[in-house]
Specification:
The complex is a heterodimer of chains A (642) and B (133). Helices cover 43% and strands 12% of the residues of chain A. Chain A is an alpha/beta fold and 642 residues long. Chain A folds into four domains: 55 residues; 174 residues, Rossmann fold, CATH 3.40.50; 159 residues, TPP-binding domain (Rossmann fold, 3-Layer(aba) Sandwich); 196 residues, Rossmann fold (3-Layer(aba) Sandwich), CATH 3.40.50. Chain A is globular. In chain B, 58% of the residues lie in helices and 0% in strands. Chain B is built from six helices and no strands. Chain B is elongated and about 55 Å long. Classes of the chains: A alpha/beta (642), B mainly alpha (133). Chains A and B meet through helix 13, helix 14 and helix 18 of A and helix 3 and helix 6 of B.
């Protein structure tokens, strides 16, 4: 053990030098001011010249990094072993906004790990880093890491981690913990219980005390995060544990990852669910966050076609789960009264229960939320009186449910179901036609209507392997209506927590996942969303050459909120002429194209004329197809028609 | 359960009361002369109707063009909307709403026939093909 440098005395020496330099500088500055004043009064100027600081002065002013135990040449720092463990978890990327609490790990990732698997993704805000990891995990089917500075970095990231929690998506987060901080800077970055800052929306957090425990906790965090109901996990990593040499490297081994199988439904309950579905006259499937992988998508398609039942993919917050132009996509039409509703990964079945109870119908819920251990956030929905409640992962349970339905289906089932499917298809055809009819309104209006924006995009990408990597909270159902979501990865879902700021950075993460497959990623983001951490996320896309088209759906306001204030003002009888205060983003209107250009991204806009949209899309998409990000600022109508 | 039933009855009575009141305020059976020029700023600024219905009253949620309400029905509905996504505007005077009504009626429908929008026609045809597969 090397002799520990006394930090207090070292600090005081530096401070003395700094103060001495500062005093000299202040004297010089005072002279300069006096000289200027004298010159203005016509008096002789001060003869003392203002000199530039010498290199020695500058060196004396430099405050060296905090002394560390064993500040010496370290051949095997603990953070090298941490990187070996992280490599065993097969991460491809880690989002980093640098911080001294993890500088050991940062250096090991670069020099010991070779900046490969994981490769560092430089982010300009920790919230953006967490959102990128969130979007990446859904598109890639595997988690990404995000690395944060103590307290401040974690607090910045907290909103992104919260969204991942609400969306039931794993994000592998590590926060540095400055141990025994002596500098005034790092004291606020250390905490007695760092994990408690975000514990309300993390599936687990822990602070390993030695390297063996680090490996153990890292494996646990990974497996717990990926086991439904999934969620983000946090490791708090002591700065001294990163820096200290490994006592005996030969004795440390990297554990092998052992992923548990996903929880499947109890066989008796699955049989009962199959019996109800096989004998139902008008079954309906509703999904929430079902398809974790393309296998879940395939199995749902198989189930729907086997039963010839409509599939009602939920609205905001739901994943895609089922092809949007399929004849069975929808709820069967206005006259379809389901007698059995199967909910797959829907955490609140109350509307379904209410819907069928009056007619003696039954409800089945297969949902991993039943396995949740409880938490502070009220995102788990109402308790629902379903008839068959199965605590299991929906995707993992579908194969046994399908097999059981086949076994229990009478020989006449195929004919009956085929007739049902034809009726549903006819009802859905009428709905499709009315939706397209609604898209005509405002077709040539400026600002651009939402359906026009989506339809023009669809025409340009119909021969590409595209993926919408943003949510659809602010474009209504128009993406699903006008773009054929015929593959699992076509749509990456919303934030989950309905907070603003997710769409742009999460889209960069989703686009990163699609890059290796050569897909064309597109994001349609609200201007309100973009203004949070979106612009900085664009820089990450430019820096790391992540192809992505960002269309800013720019209605220059938080329009959903206008109506809420209107309602309140009306209730109180106070008039409505002031309700745009606090809700609109104009005077001056931000120029998002210029902002993007400033971050090195190709951009055009503002585009107000619908006729100008197609050529602008063509130019921007050419850039994206060539491998770079691009942005179009489209001045749009406040909302899409229903 | 009893309490819930009482509450439902009370809500229904309240809604009925609002509707009756609103109808009276609109002076049932009488039309008010509306001025489209006055209606435009009322639509866009005073009541911020555009925020949901679109700058052109037809690109948003819900579409107001073509407007199928009678003037009296329009005034009654806007003053006492029971819909969760449409605030009631009890303070809006019948004259103001008549002006807005007149303005909306002057807005031509920007809805070209499907045959004149090849893009939408193509989407509809492709959707039909995919659904038939």
């Amino acid at each position: 053990m090397a002799k520990r440098v006394d930090s207090t005395s070292a600090g005081s020496v530096d401070r003395r030098k700094f103060l001495k330099g500062a005093a000299a500088g202040a004297a010089g500055a005072a002279s300069a001011i006096a000289g200027t004043a004298s010159a203005q009064q016509g008096a002789p100027a001060s003869t003392r010249p203002v000199t530039r600081p010498t290199e020695a002065d500058a060196r004396a002013d430099f405050v060296p990094p905090e002394p560390r135990p064993g500040a010496q040449f370290i051949r095997h720092p603990g953070s090298d072993y941490m990187v070996d463990v992280l490599k065993a978890l097969d991460f491809d990327y880690v989002a980093v906004n640098p911080g001294s609490a993890f500088e050991g790990l940062h250096e090991s990732l670069i020099n010991h790990g070779g900046n490969r698997k994981p490769e560092i993704l430089t982010v300009l805000h920790e919230e953006a880093g967490a959102a990128m990891a969130h979007g990446y995990a859904k598109a890639a089917g595997k988690p990404m890491m995000t690395l944060m500075h103590g307290t401040v970095g974690l607090l910045h990231a907290s909103m992104g981690l919260f969204h991942a929690w609400c969306d039931r998506v794993p994000v592998f987060a590590i926060v540095g913990q400055p141990r025994n901080p002596t500098s005034v800077i790092n004291r606020p970055h250390s905490a007695q219980d760092m994990g408690s800052i975000v514990r309300d929306f993390m599936k687990m957090d822990d602070e390993p005390t030695n390297l063996d425990v680090f490996a153990n906790i890292a494996m646990r965090a990974y497996t717990i995060g990926l086991t439904p109901p999934r969620g983000p996990t946090l490791l708090v990593v002591d700065s001294e544990l990163q820096e200290a040499p490994i006592p005996d490297p030969a004795k440390l081994t990297v554990p092998r990852l052992s992923m548990p199988s996903m929880p499947q439904g109890d066989s008796g309950a699955v049989k009962e669910a199959a019996r109800l579905l096989a004998s139902a006259e008008r079954p309906l499937i509703r999904t929430g966050k079902l398809a974790r992988t393309s296998a879940g998508w395939d199995r749902l398609l198989e189930l729907a076609e086997l039963l010839q039942t409509p599939v009602d993919v939920g609205g905001y917050g739901s994943w895609q789960d089922f092809p949007s132009w399929h004849a069975l996509y929808g709820s069967g039409g206005a006259d379809y009264r389901p007698d059995v509703i199967l909910g797959l990964e829907i955490n609140d079945m109350t509307p379904s229960v209410r819907g069928v109870r009056a007619t003696g119908g039954k409800t089945i819920s297969i949902c991993s939320e039943y396995l949740s251990q409880g938490h502070n956030i009220h995102d788990f929905g109402n308790y629902s009186e379903v008839d068959v409640a199965i605590a299991a992962d929906g995707e993992a349970t579908l194969p046994s449910l399908i097999e059981e339905i086949r076994k229990q289906s009478p020989s006449s089932a195929a004919r009956v179901r085929s007739a049902r499917g034809a009726q549903i298809a006819a009802a859905h055809k009428a709905i499709r036609e009315s939706e397209i009819d609604a898209a005509r309104y405002g077709w040539n209006s400026g600002p651009v209507s939402v359906p026009r924006m989506v339809a023009e995009l669809g025409r340009q990408i119909q021969n590409d392997d595209w993926a919408i990597v943003s949510g659809h909270q602010f474009t209504g159902q128009w993406q699903r209506r006008l773009l054929n979501h015929d593959k699992f990865y076509r749509y990456n879902g919303d934030s989950g927590g309905f907070g603003i700021g997710y769409d742009t950075p999460a889209s960069v993460g989703g686009a990163l996942a699609h890059r290796e497959h050569g897909r064309l990623p597109i994001a349609i983001v609200g201007d309100g969303d973009f203004n949070f951490v979106g612009a900085g996320a664009l820089w990450t896309a430019a820096h790391h050459k992540i192809p992505l088209l960002v269309i800013v759906h720019n209605n220059r306001a938080y329009h959903a909120e206008v109506m809420l204030v209107q309602r309140t003002a009306s209730r109180r009888g106070r008039g409505n002429d002031m309700v745009d205060i606090g809700n609109v983003i104009r005077d001056p209107a931000p120029d998002y194209a210029k902002i993007a250009q400033g971050y090195g991204v190709y951009a055009e806009g503002p585009i107000t004329d619908p006729a100008a949209l197609a050529p602008a899309l063509e130019r921007a998409l050419a850039r994206v197809r060539a491998g770079e990000p691009a942005l179009l600022d489209v001045i749009s109508q406040p909302r899409g028609p229903t | 359960m009893k309490n819930r039933r009482r509450a439902t009855v009370a809500c229904a009575a309240l809604a009925a009361g609002i509707l009756v009141g609103a109808t009276l305020s609109a002076q049932q059976g009488q039309t008010v002369a509306g001025d489209a020029a006055r209606g435009k700023p009322l639509f866009a600024d005073t009541f911020n109707c555009y925020a949901c219905h679109g700058f052109d009253a037809q690109s948003g949620e819900r579409r107001l063009v073509p407007l199928n309400y009678t003037q009296e029905g329009f005034i009654t509905f806007v003053q006492s909307s029971p819909l969760p996504n449409m605030p009631a505007f009890p303070d809006a005077s019948p004259q103001q709403l008549a002006d807005i009504y007149a303005y909306i009626r002057t807005i031509p429908a920007d809805a070209p026939a499907l045959g004149d929008v090849p893009l939408l026609r193509e989407i509809l045809e492709r959707k039909a093909r995919v659904a038939a597969e």
